[in-house]
Give the backbone structure.
Amino acid sequence: MRRTLMTWQGGRRRWRKWYKGVLYQVTAADLGCEETKDGSYQKANAWWLAKKAEVDGRRPVHPVVAEMQQRKDWLISKGLDPSAYSAWMKEAESMAQSDDLHPSILNSLLDSLSPSPEVWRDRLSRDKPETQPDISLKTQTRNYLDLLQARVDADNLSVGEYDMARLCLGVFSEWIGPEMPVTNITEERWQNWYKTIIDSGISVRYQKHRLRHSRNFVVWAVGMKLMTQPANLYSRLFKFGTDHKEVIPLKVGEALAVIEKARGQLKLHLMLMINCGFTQKDISDLRPEEIVWEEGRIDRRRSKTKKLKTPYVAWKLWQPTLDLLKQYARTTGDHALLTESGRTWVRDEIKNGKRSKTDSIKSLYVNAGLARTQLKRFRSTGASMIKKEFGAEASDHWLGHGPKNISDRSYWAKDQERLDSAVAWLGEQLGFVSKD
């Protein structure tokens, strides 16, 4: 009978265990075994027994370290920055591990810190901090990201969105101070955070990301009753400019020259980008049942917007695209197109709390010596040509964009005939469809 000493988390392929108020975790990869519950539980059991023995055998907290913790708690309770004591505590804990260290050395370290020991004794005797839950930015951002990780595991949040939240909150936490309590996020600090963002020199797009993700964190912390919501959290004064990054589509001759040089599945990838406006993720996620062979169409929602319940788009395939698809597409399984080794073309996941992304389509493109042209320009080329000839609605339909307003969501039906005409016309301009 299988007996496990830790709890298995299949989505993250790791084992975890709470013990004496501390969470211990280890991945199957770290254990050097198969990344399944059955294949790793024995090594996980052995790992935990060793870790438990290590934890149980630890020395008691040194009195100097304990007093430093009291001082740190007092600073936190007053809304003051405790980072100096955090650094000294690490130094003291390291010194306390030495067997031949005389106690007077650690005591002298404590006495050397300002203010004087007498001042601290008076502070702690008059206003002894109560034991409170850890509401530091460092701890609470970690708790918040654990929630987002659970959403990623449930396929309720993209890996990219999780990683952007992690990066933005890392900057936010460092700016305020990781050891500072979340209660220090006041109206004044929130305004200063906005000014820091707009003075950061990063693109407007990432400025918006930083404010949005830090605001989402604050809303979560308020909901958890860790803090009071700043009155200006949603102030309309906190606005950003616009990026003036021009999208430069390829000329017809440039697009054809690149496609002509491509071989094998790479040529199919480029044809899907110019025929259907696909991204690398769309190509990787394409399922066999989304290819309507008898009609020569692909009928699906874009990968990026499928969770928004956007309408399905039915792209009519040009004959060269259809021929390549028949050559390389699989008719069963979860993915129509796979690499030669049988893996998905784009792999995006969280490993050890950080994003791990592999884009084999881009790698194949670069290795073919075609990387002078960005892949996304094929999509912008088709969209720009269709918009100029058929209008913005047809271009948005071809791109698989989601609804922009209530009318789009509820009343306006996509014009399939117009889309078919636009796709056929685009194929004629590129020479893939013969003109009648």
About this structure: The chain is about 55% helix and 10% strand.
